[in-house]
Amino acid sequence: MTIGPLLKPHVRRVEAALEARLDHSSIEPRLQQAMRYALLNGGKRIRPCLVYLVNRLLGGVAEEADLPACAIEAVHSYSLVHDDLPAMDDDDLRRGKPTCHIAFDEATAVLAGDALQAIAFEWLAGGQSALAPATRLRAVATLARAAGDRGMVAGQAFDLANVGNPLDLEQLQQMHRHKTGALLTAAIELGALSAGITEGESYTALKRYGDAIGLAFQVQDDILDIEGDTETLGKPQGSDLAQNKPTFPALLGLEGAREKLRELHAEALHALEPFGNDAAALRALADYIVARDH
After folding, report:
1. Alpha-carbon 43 to chain mean position
2. Is the sign of the CA dihedral 209, 215, 217, 220 positive or negative?
3. Which of 122, 74, 81 is CA-nearest to residue 98?
4. First-to-last CA distance in the chain?
5. pLDDT-based confidence at 1, cuts 50/70/90?
6. Phi and psi torsions of 143, nearest 5°
7. At what angle do helices 182-194 and 62-83 cross, to 10 degrees?
8. By the number of CB atoms within 10 A of the CB, which of 26, 165, 215, 233 ranks highest?
9. pLDDT top residue among 229 and 137
10. How far apart are CA 18 and CA 23, in angstroms?
11. How far apart are CA 18 and CA 21, in angstroms?
């Protein structure tokens, strides 16, 4: 199973939903232009695709996954806008195009990121969903936890605080389980919640899968920072190395990082064994995450 045909309908679906939900008036058109630039500027859409794939695996209805899929992509896009700022990673390219603060300006980029984060929770909590209020509340809490100081933001803060500092393997893994893995695991939780599943063996197994692919995603990112090229990556190659950031190849060596990637891939596939052939799409996604070139 190749990844393109697998993800394409879900990518089309979430992009149409995002386009429709951002189509509203504003007293400051430039702000909404920057929001649209950040949110609709390409991207692999792995997180919303995970929401849809888990929803389908657990017998859900795709329409109930739309708002969670849009919400998690808005939070992810906000995080990229802020990560690229001069005060953070100071990157000029994202997805092969000028970063938001380059295309607009720093203040507008900060505000666009703020607005994308806020609108994500507006969508998730809004009344358009047929999900029970208690399920919607749990979805809001799930995304907030994954995005905040127990998830993505904590990982970014730890990363910035440890530039140039030696980390052991456990510290590095914890950093990336927060910085990258938290949102990927949240996508799986949101997919399950959109299908009305809040606990049980399937829920636990899928969370284990999410933990494994979340860390694998970052290991492959670290490898690509060394082996990739700027044109393919769509962002500056070697930026982590130039900033002396803690990475898996820096700690384990390039071959050690590849071995870690193989271990995480195996963990992800093992977690899916209880689902049999029904999880073929999620297996293909795990294969893609560890083999992608950008």
Report:
1. 10
2. negative
3. 81
4. 19
5. very low
6. -70, -40
7. 160
8. 215
9. 137
10. 9
11. 5
Record the tokens describing residue 284, joined without a space.
């293909």
Contact between residue 157 and residue 112 where contact means Cβ atoms under 8 Å apart: no
Rounded to whole angstroms, what are the CA distances from 222 to 86, 104, 145, 156? 21, 28, 25, 15
Q: How many Cβ atoms are within 10 Å of 155's Cβ, its own excluded?
A: 22
For residue 165, which amino acid is it? N
Which positions ≥6 away from 216 have C-beta within 8 Å? Answer: 261, 264, 265, 268, 286, 289, 290
**pLDDT tens figures, 142-165:** 999 999 999 999 999 998 888 888
Query: How deeply is 29 buried, as exposed, middle or buried, from its count of CB atoms within 10 A (0-12, 13-18, 19+)?
Result: exposed
In the chain, what are the domain boundaries? 3-291
CATH class of this structure's domain 3-291: mainly alpha
Q: Which residue has the tokens 């939780």?
A: 189
